[in-house]
Specification:
This protein has five helices and four strands, in the order αβαβαββαα. Strands 2-1-3-4 form a four-stranded antiparallel β-sheet. β3 and β4 form a beta hairpin. The longest helix has 21 residues. The N and C termini lie far apart (44 Å). 19% of the residues are buried. Bound molecules: zinc ion (ZN). Zinc ion binds next to α5.
């Protein structure tokens, strides 16, 4: 199929969902994209450590950031002769325990959040209630 047609259909479908959500008086969930950078040539800068997404992998060479920050960090690494790893994914936090969900899990969570007025109060899994109590993802 022509990718433009596929994209048009996808947009139309999204528009339908949006209309349904609005008609039911629910709130549409914003999609949030983040990126992981695996540094090659430079050590992790302090600013990147400060701006990392809490609750996700963070090492001397790997960090999850907002895309703008991630692209900037890649530029710095490449300027130093490196070839950094870069991967984008959708992210969404559970409204109950604050756990960060990535990729397909984030898409599922977003649809769950949009599914009902109380969608954001639904649990993300078996450890959700416990995690919410001890605040491990806060
Ligand atoms: Zn949860």
């Amino acid at each position: 199929m022509d990718p433009r047609i596929a994209l048009r259909r996808q947009r139309a479908r999204r528009r339908e969902i949006r209309t349904d959500i609005a008609r039911a008086g629910r709130k549409e969930a914003q999609r949030r994209w983040i990126a992981r950078v695996d540094l090659d040539a430079i050590p992790m800068p302090a600013w990147a450590a400060e701006r990392r997404i809490p609750g996700l992998t963070f090492t001397e060479s790997a960090v999850w950031l907002r895309r703008r920050d991630a692209k900037f960090l890649c530029r710095l690494d490449r300027a130093a002769g490196g070839s950094p790893g870069y991967a984008e994914t959708e992210m969404r936090r559970c409204g109950v325990c604050h756990r960060p969900l990535l990729g397909e899990d984030a898409v599922y969570r977003r649809r769950l959040d949009e599914s009902a007025v109380t969608g954001r109060m639904k649990s993300c899994g078996s450890e959700c209630a416990e995690a919410s109590k001890d605040g491990r993802w806060r």
